Amino acid sequence: MLEAFVFATVLCGFFGIIFKQNLMMKIIAMDVMSTGVIAYYVLIAARDGFLTPIASTAIAATTENVAYADPVPQAVILTAIVIGFSIQALMLVSVMKLARDNPTLESSEIEKNNTP
């Protein structure tokens, strides 16, 4: 059930990027979509019974195999969050520059004003 909600969040963001004409709404929809993708990866990576990958003498003394959590997906998700934030900041600066020259942020009106 939770997977369906996360998938619906990704689809809402995707359709917002495609169907919205306002540039600010497109940026917000992209943020919603990236949040849904990150939530999906967190949902997939959440497993019960895994330990943190910290070596200690108590763990080293046991001879049984212990299930450790893989730190690579965590690093990938942190990187995705940082890259998403920087892309969003870059898009907002671009929209601010467009807003100086155009009275509206509707993409169809901007295209009409800037075509030769």
How large is the count of helical segments?
A: 5
Strand content: under 5%
Structural class: mainly alpha
What's the story with the biggest beta sheet? Answer: none
Report Rg.
Answer: 21 Å
Q: How many domains make up the 3D coordinates?
A: 1
- The CATH topology is Helix Hairpins
Got a strand count? 0
N- to C-terminal distance: 51 Å
CATH class designation: Mainly Alpha
What is the share of helical residues?
over 70%
Please summarize what this structure is.
With 116 residues, this protein is mainly α. 72% of the residues lie in helices and 0% in strands.
What's the layout of helices and strands?
Layout: H1 2-19, H2 23-45, H3 57-61, H4 72-101, H5 107-114
Helix pairs in contact: 1-2, 2-4
Please characterize this protein's 3D structure:
It contains five helices and no strands. It has a single domain, classed as Helix Hairpins (Orthogonal Bundle). The mean pLDDT is 84. The longest helix is centred in the C-terminal third of the chain and has 30 residues, at 72-101. It is elongated, with a radius of gyration of 21 Å. It is 72% helix and 0% strand. The chain is mostly helical.
